[in-house]
Amino acid sequence: MTPASAPAFKRVLLKLSGEALMGDLDYGTDPERVRAIAAQIAGVHRSGVEIALVVGAGNIYRGLKGAAAGMDRATADYMGMMATVLNALTMQDALEKEGANTRVQSAITISEVAEPYIRRRAMRHLEKGRIVIFAAGTGNPFFTTDTAAALRAVEIHAEAILMAKNGVEGVLTGDPRTDSDATLIREISHMDALRRGLRVMDYTALTLCAENQMPLYVFNMNDERNIERIVSGERVGTVVVTRDE
């Protein structure tokens, strides 16, 4: 983004999968990958865009799947929520090393390391130029971090959700692992994505975005300039929008 160009958005929410933090690891966190992501986010934030962040926990929970096998679903989901807190603290540390001011807000009480989630306080942090990292999903089992991202974006009046994917350019017509003819969809409506069963985000989250006309930008996190391109107004990956059906 050039100094003369104004950002296309004032406030966005970035949904970052836990897998994006793994790099080439089977599970866990790659410090170099985390630093690269933090540098991208901090750079865009310095341009004047207010940024909130929701981080998944796939990088940690992959290692816990064996332990959670056969476990009560609610208990396993609470384990996943705590894993997102670990990722939130990791991102907080990396962002602050890039010079950004941050706050972590958790949907479950963990007062020694994070504030409780309070909507008005979160919005005030954003207005004061702080990056807010939302941890622990919605605080409820049976809901994913995708749903948490959709809910928080609507609550804080974000203008768009940026869905960062790990090694995938956007929304495809099929699963590239099983469909060699799968192609990138440049633009699609929320309802069409639901009808076609495309893997944009989970159905609850996608429905919430549709009901609140929240646009989604689905893009490949591996390209280090993609966040900057999107907030500059460029078309990157897939745009999911609300249309009259």
Coarse morphology: globular
Number of strands: 9
Q: Mind telling me which CATH architecture this is?
A: 3-Layer(aba) Sandwich
CATH superfamily: Acetylglutamate kinase-like
Average residue-wise pLDDT? 91
Helix content: 25-40%
Give a summary of the structure in a few sentences.
The chain is α/β, with parallel strands linked by helices and 245 residues long.
What does this 3D model show about the protein?
- The protein is of the alpha/beta class and 245 residues long.
- The chain is 37% helix and 17% strand.
- It has a single domain (11-241), classed as Carbamate kinase (3-Layer(aba) Sandwich).
- The protein is built from 9 helices and 9 strands.
- The chain has a 9-stranded mixed sheet, with helices on both faces.
- α1 packs across α4 (73-97) and α6 runs parallel beside α8 (203-211).
- It is globular.
- The mean pLDDT is 91.
Keywords:
globular; 9 helices; 37% helix; Carbamate kinase; nine-stranded mixed sheet; alpha/beta; 245 residues
Q: Could you give the topology of this structure?
A:
Layout: E1 11-16, H1 31-46, E2 50-55, H2 58-61, H3 65-68, H4 73-97, E3 102-106, E4 115-116, H5 119-127, E5 131-135, H6 145-155, E6 160-165, E7 187-189, H7 190-196, H8 203-211, E8 216-220, H9 226-231, E9 238-241
